[in-house]
Write a structure and sequence with these properties.
This protein has 340 residues and is an alpha/beta fold. It has a 6-stranded mixed beta sheet with strand order 8-13-12-9-10-11, sandwiched between helices. A 5-stranded mixed beta sheet has the order 3-2-1-4-7, sandwiched between helices. It has a two-stranded antiparallel ribbon with strand order 5-6. Strand 1 and strand 2 form a beta hairpin. The radius of gyration is 20 Å and the shape is globular.
Length: 340
């Protein structure tokens, strides 16, 4: 257990087993996993990945995954703000109601929480080997923060009460992007014309990587090789192409440099907002695939560049979560230890 999470009302003992459906629902893909829980450990029974856009509702996806099976409990981490058991997914046209899902499955307990909350709860079952350290810091007891670029930008805090850790969601990724330099201001103006409101998510995400690339190509007139443009026309993941070619193509290198700089800055913003003296975790699927592009010295220099608060940030550990099952494990953990 990387952080000492509060244990909820766990009424499953070692003498009882149950099946848990855990879900990580994102704007691009949805991961589902069925676990057996014996009172101590989670054993994976079945797992599958779906493209969210291929379904018009979660219910149909669950039918395809479960067939006629009915688990004992469900928990889903969802990309969006959960209010009264309902959520409108931020980057896919779904509205999910926990009561409606429960009704389909004999009214079993169904929990909807923010996807960054499930990542936070997943830390309960991870080990140090599941992390990559960018900056060791000093680990002063206190709160933690989690920032996770993917299809969007998720952010969450973990409150430390002196005994237990309590994750809480935020929608910090949708806060205003703040330019620092003249090139930043040019980028901000470019994005404002394109989107209106300019949030950090417009830059620190998979789509954000491509947006930065377009800015460098169209406004800064950096050379975009014809072969790369042709590949992007047939490849369904332009951000991955950009990061894969960052070692050899200047426009790709500059794109990823800006992406990492903005991630470092916003991670520090989050650290200051929640006073994350115990550490910042970077989740999501982008960073583990691009460790070779992360120069820890440069990244942490950007992270520390906050004037009068530099001394506070210098002591904060910064680590990348490598385990791509963290959110699913967190959803399973919450199904057994709900706040309610």
């Amino acid at each position: 257990m990387l952080i000492p999470l509060r244990t909820g009302k766990n009424d499953w003992s070692a003498q009882h087993t149950c099946t848990l459906l855990a879900g990580d629902i994102g704007g691009t893909k949805t991961n589902l996993a069925l676990y057996n829980y014996d009172g101590k450990t989670f054993t994976l029974l079945k797992e599958d990945k779906y493209l969210s856009k291929d379904y018009n509702s979660l219910g149909k996806m669950l039918t395809d995954f479960l067939g006629d099976k009915v688990p004992d409990r469900m928990c889903f981490g969802v990309a969006g703000p959960v209010l009264n058991g309902k959520v409108k997914i931020t980057n896919v046209p779904w509205t999910i109601d926990s009561n409606e899902i429960a009704h389909l499955y004999n009214n079993i307990p169904v929990h909807l929480i923010n996807d960054l909350e499930t990542t936070a709860y997943g830390l309960a079952v991870l080990e140090e080997k599941d992390l990559h350290t960018i900056h060791k810091g000093k680990h002063i007891p206190g709160n933690w923060g989690i920032i996770a670029p993917g299809t969007g930008l998720g952010e969450a805090g973990i409150y430390w009460d002196g005994k237990n850790a309590h994750p809480f969601p935020t929608e910090g990724g949708h806060c205003d992007f703040a330019p620092r330099t003249e090139p930043d201001l040019e980028l901000f103006t470019y994005l404002q014309r394109k989107f209106g409101h300019v949030s950090w998510e417009r830059l620190i995400s998979g789509p954000g990587i491509f947006t930065i690339y377009e800015f460098l190509r169209d406004l800064k007139e950096m050379d975009a090789p014809a072969w790369l443009t042709d590949k992007m026309l047939v490849h369904d993941d332009a951000p991955a192409l950009i990061s894969e070619n960052a070692d050899t193509v200047p426009i790709c290198a500059e794109t990823m440099t800006l992406f990492l700089r903005y991630l470092a800055i916003e991670a520090a913003n989050l650290a200051l907002k929640v006073k994350a003296t115990a550490g910042i975790f970077i989740g999501g699927g982008i960073m583990p695939k691009n460790l070779k592009l992360v120069d820890s010295h440069i990244f942490i220099k950007w992270f520390h560049d906050f004037g009068r608060m530099k001394h506070l940030l210098e002591d904060i550990p910064v680590k990348i979560i490598l385990n791509d099952k963290t959110a699913l494990l967190g959803a399973a953990w919450y199904a057994i230890n709900p706040n309610e």
